[in-house]
Amino acid sequence: MSEKVHNYHEGNLYFQDIFDTRRLANKIAERASETLSEEQKHMIENADMFFLATCDHRGLPTCSYKGGAPGIVTVIDDKTIAFPNYDGNGKFQSMGNVRQNNNVGLLFIDFINQSRLRIQGTMSFNTDDNLMAKYPEAQFMARVDIVEAYPNCARYIHKYELVEHSIYVPKKGKTTPVAPWQPDLMDVLPKTDPARKKKIR
Question: What is the pTM of this model?
């Protein structure tokens, strides 16, 4: 048995044995890597969104959508990627979770070419990261040190075509439109929020 096979725990093995997939699972485990391939780098660098999984202090997981322009994630090298944190709903749920538990999971899905990639790793933050200049309006940069990366079965990925990117994604040299808020939240917005100043609802 390879070392990667031992990453399966009793819960995984329980279902693998019921459905006779242990041989298949062991073979797939061999595809996992501690580094990104050139193909995986290309997929990440061209992504305009991904999903980020974190766990809170209770051990309860949450999964958040991170969207932006193509290139929202920068590949630093074959073991490190980085992405900006933009203004959101003010909860800092995912990023706050990482301050308590820096283990994260990222899921990249290419709905046009129907492929996906999973990454497990550890995350750190930096408000002085030299990549901040690449991402206008970024609050800080998050860097992920990759522990494991592996492709995933594309069988059930639906095929979509992009209609348009969100108009609220910050772009260099352009003024970002002010996002509306629900009326009952206007009075609790940060004092610097442009929606509060313009009373946009």
Answer: 0.90
